[in-house]
Design a protein that fits this description.
There is one protein chain. The protein has 164 residues and is an alpha+beta fold. The protein has one domain. Helices cover 13% and strands 30% of the residues. The strands form two sheets. A four-stranded antiparallel β-sheet has the order 4-7-5-6, with no helix packed on it. A hairpin with a 5-residue loop joins strand 5 and strand 6. The longest helix is centred in the first third of the chain and has 21 residues.
């Protein structure tokens, strides 16, 4: 009788476990391009006394704010460069007016691609979108980044660091 009860309980347990597994749900995470305005309205870098990653070609475009000297730095692919002694921002522009405004225009001199009254401190690289083999847009490609894996990408514009 005890063996029958154990066998019955084992059967009930396995049946319950398989039922729970069958009821598991799939979760799909979707991103939007372009992102909703509020999501990227402001960029905040958390201060560190030194960079948390080493600067190399795979980290090109990475930025950090130094809490000791109050400067912002960007990795150019080989070393950390000081962006400015004051306020600086990332300026995104589009490679074509069909994508949006402002369109990337090189004004030359120290202004470079930056808006009037600002100096270009560096280029963070091209940014764009990534999509799967069926052409469905999957996510935004950050400046200097790649789509990776089996995704293809297209460039939408460029990003620059500008300061006064």
């Amino acid at each position: 009788m005890l063996k029958s009860l154990k066998a019955f309980l084992a059967f009930v347990f396995l049946f319950a476990a398989s039922t729970v597994a069958a009821l598991a749900e799939d979760i799909t995470i979707t991103t939007y391009y372009p992102s909703p305005y509020g999501s990227y309205n402001e960029l905040q870098l958390y201060p560190h006394s030194s960079p948390t990653v080493s600067c190399n070609s795979s980290k090109r475009g990475t930025m950090y704010y130094d809490s000791d000297d109050n400067n912002m730095y960007v990795c150019n692919g080989t070393s950390w460069l000081v962006l400015s002694k004051g306020s600086a921002f990332t300026y995104y522009c589009f490679s074509s007016s069909s994508y949006g405004s402002p369109v990337c225009t090189n004004y030359g001199g120290s202004r470079g691609y930056c808006p009037s009254g600002y100096t270009q401190q560096g280029s963070l690289g091209a940014w764009g979108r990534c999509y799967d083999s069926s052409g469905n847009y999957a996510y935004m490609r950050p400046p200097g980044g790649s789509c990776g894996g089996s995704y293809s990408g297209s460039t939408v514009g460029n990003a620059y660091v500008c300061s006064q």
